[in-house]
Design goal:
By secondary structure, this protein is an all-alpha fold. It is 78% helix and 0% strand. Helix 2 crosses helix 3. The longest helix has 32 residues.
Length: 98
C-alpha cells in the first residue's frame, strides 16, 4: 500500500471519518474536521504501513484516540515553529555573510 492507494479510499472512508469527527465533537473538540483527522492518520498512523486493507483503515479511524490526535497536533505545531526558526536563522546568517 502507498499513500496514493489510501487517498483513493478517502470517499469510501468518509462515513468513518465523519463518525470520528462527531465523536470528538461530543467530547468537546468542536474544531476538529474530517480533513484534520485524515491528515493525522496519513502522517502518523499510516505513514509506515505498507499493507493496509480497507477494513484496517476503517478500524484505525474508529479507534483513533483523542490523545493520538492531540499529540499529532502538538508535534505538527512544533515542526512548523522549528521550520520557521530554521528559516529565520538561515536568513540572519545569509544577511551577515553579505
Amino acid at each position: 500500500m502507498n499513500n496514493g492507494q489510501i487517498v483513493e479510499w478517502k470517499d469510501k472512508l468518509m462515513p468513518a471519518l465523519k463518525s470520528k469527527q462527531v465523536e470528538f465533537e461530543v467530547m468537546g473538540y468542536k474544531d476538529i474536521s474530517t480533513s484534520d483527522i485524515w491528515e493525522c492518520l496519513l502522517k502518523r498512523t499510516w505513514k509506515s504501513n505498507k499493507d493496509l486493507s480497507l477494513h484496517q483503515a476503517v478500524q484505525d479511524i474508529l479507534h483513533l484516540p483523542i490523545q493520538t490526535y492531540m499529540s499529532y497536533l502538538a508535534l505538527s505545531a512544533y515542526d512548523i515553529d522549528n521550520n520557521d526558526l530554521m528559516m529565520s536563522i538561515k536568513a540572519v546568517i545569509n544577511n551577515n555573510e553579505t
